[in-house]
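Recall the central idea of this unit: under ordinary conditions, the amino acid sequence of a chain determines the structure it adopts. In this exercise we apply that idea directly, starting from the sequence alone.
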Amino acid sequence: MSGQGRQHGDGRRGPKRRADGQGAPRRQNTGGATQHSASRNARPRDVQPARRVAYDVIRAVSTSDAYANLLLPGAIRDAGLNAADAALATELTYGTLRRLGTYDAIIAAAAGREVAGIDAPVLDALRLGAHQILATRVATHAAVNESVNLVALESGRGASGFANAVLRKVAARTQEEWLDAVTAAARSDDERLGLRYAHPVWIIRALRRALAAEGREDELEELLAADNVAPEVTLVALPGLAEPREPRRPYAPTAFGSEGGDPGATVAANKGRVRVQDEGSQLVALALVGVRPVAAGERWLDLCAGPGGKTALLAAEALRGGATLDANEVAPARAGLVRKAVAAVPLRVEVAEEDGRVLAAERPAAYDRILLDAPCTGLGALRRRPEARWRKTAADVPELAALQEELLSAALGALKPGGILAYVTCSPHLAETAAVVQTVLRDRDDVHELDAREALGAVSQQPIDLPEPSNGSGHAQLWPHRHGTDAMFLSLLVKDA
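Accordingly, the structure predicted from this sequence is:
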């Protein structure tokens, strides 16, 4: 499982603000030097707290492989930011990380050197400054001066002079002018798209192939643009334990939007019976439950359960239907999150901490329904985890696909005859989705695929656009640009009785 569904600190764009915190339109960028110059003799002043939080999180992402969506909420709390500054810090952090590759190309052009030759603390400050200058309404002089002060505090006066010169050049052009400049040197159409929409080329090609499998290749740029828009916070009301509120989401009957503010307060006030969870994650779990009526006494398993959002939803449904639920998560810290998630449901859920392949092999033909939300590249949650696109490489896919095949084969062994398994990934990459299912089913004559599109349609509140794959398989693929969800893949497999 790739961490989807974590939306606390989700990066929704807050009010566009000046450095003094008072909302005001950004002044027109004149490209002049005088308003950007920073004194070389004055002692660097402290940086505005929201920018300091954003910079510190970006540095942690760069230096220690931290995840911004996990680190940022705590950093905001520790800094004591008010709501407006918290929104600014969130936008600066997420916005900078989403477009990192594009900003690096712009910085390299402005600096006249490759970014690999720029000290890392300076480069992160330049990235943060470039985002403010090109993509927000922050006053240009404030964006430059604050970024220069960051460099002075972190790396000294000599580096701050360099940063000042680079950011003045960045500010001399609009974002569109810079995009035209850096894409003009692109060696291919895919590289050009990668620079314009801030996606690595290998991801662009994978997304194009996944869309083409549905006959929707012409939606590629719309998808790439959607990946750069912060997702709205979506919550789940655990069925039978809480009721969804307004505004309702269009598809999952359990899903509704946040009223604003910290969603963690809503979760706490409802004692975990309301949780933050992407609508796509809700839909795939509900499809497993709704594909046929639940019989009392059924045994269910969530095989790769961390961090527990789908487990909690399944637990609530199991409670309503008279079923039992087991869960497994190999990582102890994530297993702890699963236990915390299901604590809101008055149902005993045993949470094991084993390799899913081993646990499934130890429990042959034991379960009526199994959710396998397999570890994946997470390419379906790029809106939510903006740094992920720059960390993964195409070389990661074969190893993950091999693990996914092994997990799916083992999970099918733990399924009773007549039982149903939901194979789910938060990735649309064909090597992690359709190819895994095809490979595993090739060697079995006792398993067939149900129509996942029909199952999703049956639990959805309104019609949902799910075109049939060109190979005629029964799987379904959700998309950010089409459905407003993470790009969740679902295949429903039944073992013949």
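Confidence is low (pLDDT under 50) at residues 2-42.
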